[in-house]
Amino acid sequence: MIEAADVCSLQLRNLRDGPSAAFHELSTRVAEFKPTIVLLQHPVRSGLDARSLSLLRSVHDFTLVYHEGDPYGRFTHRLPAAARAAAKASDVAMTVGSGQFRRNLERAGAKDVRWAPHRYDPDSFGYFPINADRPYDFVMIANRSTPRFAFRALPGARQRLELVERMQEKFGSRFAIFGAGWEGPSAQGKVPFWQQEEAISSAWISVNWDHYPNEADYFSNRLPISLAAGSIHITGRHPGYREYFTDDLPFLRFADSPEHLVAVAEETLAGTSEDQRLSAIHAGRLWVDARLRADTQLVELLNAGGAQIDEAAGVEARRLDVATLTAH
Question: Where is the Spore protein YkvP/CgeB glycosyl transferase-like domain (predicted)?
Answer without folding.
Answer: 161-302
